[in-house]
Amino acid sequence: MPHLPCHARLVAAVTVTVMLALPAAAEPVLRRGNDGEAESLDPHKVAGAWEDRIIGDLFEGLLADDPAARPIPGQASSWTVSDDGLVYTFTLRPDARWSDGRPVTAGDFVYAFRRLLAPATAAKYASLLFTIAGAEAFNSGTVTDPEAVAARARGPRTLEVRLAHPAPYFLDQLTHMTAYPVPRHVVDAHGDDWTKPGNIVTNGPYRLVDWQPQRAVTLTRNDAHYAAAEVAIATVVYLPIEDRTEALKRFRADEIDTYPQFPARQYRWLRANLPDETRVAPYLGIYYYPINIHRPPFDRREVRRALALAIDREIITERITGVGEVPATSFVPPGTLNYRPAFEPALGWPAERRLAKARRLLAAAGYGPETPLRFVLRYNTSENHRQVAIAIAAMWKQALGVEVELFNSEVTVHYNALQHQDFEVARAAWIADYNDAQNFLFLAESSSGKLNYPRYANPDYDRLMDQAALTQDPAARGELLHQAEAILMHDMPYIPIYYYVSRNLVSTRIKGWVDNIEDRHRSRWLSLE
């Protein structure tokens, strides 16, 4: 399987190539290490946090993120909401422009929403905007007329959006890359090549200068952006580095200024030697193992629950990750707004009781010392993921006699396999796009498509999620979501492992970095000494 370059001679080659691509003027250059290679720069074609970092610099939605990742006016300067919570009317700012100078219009957002939801686009994140009336029916093909999507341009600068149900998190959703506009005039002219350097037109604080796959993505300040005068850093270079140990070496060598997810086993050393550069903070995210429930024997709930019960999560968080992560016994992390997670008590039982139950469940499915369960555990390339996988495979072997083959691939290949159900058990993670339990639980809805890696479908679960979507009272809505999560934890298509903390390496010459629960840090808010 292909692996990102990490040898010294390749690092040198990348550095020379990137420097050749940069402006000659001595303007600030921010070098951001990124933990994956972007599959695309099309906001409708990707789903990874490593892609969102770049795309969030290039594009901007109706709302944007402030330094603490709180929603603020973006391309829209203001908005109103109807009394029933269903109709949102946005007024676009008069100076909203694409990087080629054309105005950003309400029609651009209508076009983008329809494109995202069109079945032909095959957008991985289309379900995020099912909050819009008609969106789900259009995306599923039940309705073929794009006019069914209830987003209307009431003039060049007025956009009206009608929701399928009240959604208190809708404004938060609009900060996500899924809700960004795309330039129809460029997409029509270049088709799938519209995001290539020389073709792409953006509306965010930055524009694309160069993209060398597996090497670097270079951005420069977009002078057409309404806040260009406030953007302190002229050039941003994203360097894909999946090997976290290599990333730490390059950070110490002053080759990169930031990196997400430093190697956990180095935390003590970092805290002692680079305390000001080592940033750890609470984070809305879960590390979990999805199970392909359509492949025997994983179609049997007792097999899935046995595997979940045999994992000692405290060993994982204390001895392997060790940066303050919390053992997970629910799918929705604690601290989620207006929500009480549905914890699975059995995952927190003492080891002896938990393992005895796991052995009984697996024996009931026909597996034991004479007939061991065998399968492949997939994970994406990372020393941390490898260590976690080795530890969990050893736990399964010791407690249940399970024989596990480990298989790793780079991040894009790995998640493509998950989205196409080419796995048995795999490593995955979900980081909140907005602070609401629905943003975790929607993954298990039968309508969530490729993001529902196990293709889990439970009518009772879907019914509760639908009821919650129609409920405006926060307490009643939270209780419905809690009941849905209890079903999910009982069926166990996902094995929760631990809740994340964010852990970033940030050079002390960077100013304006604010730790936040969504770990979102747009380059427009940063400056360099």
Shape annotation: globular
- Residues in helix, %: 25-40%
CATH third-tier fold name of the largest domain:
D-Maltodextrin-Binding Protein, domain 2
Q: Which CATH-level-2 architecture of the largest domain?
A: 3-Layer(aba) Sandwich
Q: How many extended strands? A: 20
What is the domain total for the residues?
Answer: 2
Chain-averaged pLDDT: 93
CATH superfamily (homologous) name of the largest domain: Periplasmic binding protein-like II
Main sheet record: 5 strands, antiparallel
Structural class from helices and strands?
alpha+beta
Radius of gyration: 23 Å
Give the uncertain stretches in residue-range form.
Answer: 1-25
Q: Would you state the CATH class of the largest domain? A: Alpha Beta
Q: Work out the strand percent.
A: 15-25%
Instruction: Please give the count of helices.
Output: 16
Alpha-carbon distance between the termini?
40 Å
